[in-house]
Amino acid sequence: MSSEVRSKSRALQPGIVFSMLVCAGIAASGSARAAAQDGWYTTDQATSGHQLFNNYCAQCHRPDLTGAAGPALVGDAFLKQWSNKPLSALFSFEHSKMPATNPGSVPDDVMWNITAYILQKNGLPAGSVALGQPTEAGKVLPAK
Ligand code: HEC
Q1: CA-CA distance, 38 to 52, in Å (whole number)?
Q2: Torsion (CA) 116, 122, 126, 130 in degrees, nearest 10
Q3: How confident is the model over 9-48, as pLDDT tens digits?
């Protein structure tokens, strides 16, 4: 290694130490770790989910998710209800109980896109992998 290269790598060290600290902070927040690695859904998926939500769910939960005939799907009460629970629990609830008038009528892939939109509205980050059966495994919704 030339001395020039060596001094460059030394110059990088504060940055490395900083990112280690950031990583340690994320690890300390527990379940947020998996999410931080790859996000929860893709932005495209949430955009599609927005439209689907309007079609299937908004009549009872309002287009802005603040609730009407059904409860709000955004905000503290919603997050408290689902925090520290597997994402699969939220999905099974939606899939088996919603829409309330015709439970189970929404296909899986459509419901995953809708779920991506709900997560987006609740502030969970987008990533490069779409939310779905293989990618949700083991994901736990963040503590509120
Ligand atoms: C006909 C009205 C209606 C429609 C349409 C509807 N919901 Fe609901 N939803 C409700 C009611 C009523 C509840 C509360 C009953 C319960 O929790 O069992 C509820 C509860 C929920 C909850 C739980 C909220 C909480 O605080 O725990 C979720 C999540 C949900 N709905 C998602 C959806 C999704 C996704 C769709 C669209 C696919 C949808 N709902 C369509 C009426 C509706």
Answers
A1: 24
A2: -10
A3: 455 555 444 454 444 444 444 444 444 457 999 999 999 9
Question: What does the block give as tokens for 27?
Answer: 């690890």
Identify the CA nearest to 56 among candidates 100, 18, 4.
100
Spacing, Cα 7 to ligand 1 middle (Å): 59
Q: Does ligand 1 lie within 6 Å of residue 36's CB atom?
A: no
DSSP lists the bridge partners of residue 86 as 140
Look at ligand 1, atom 32, and give the residue with the nearest C-alpha.
Answer: 94
Distance from the CA of 47 to the center of ligand 1, in angstroms?
20
**pTM given for the model:** 0.79
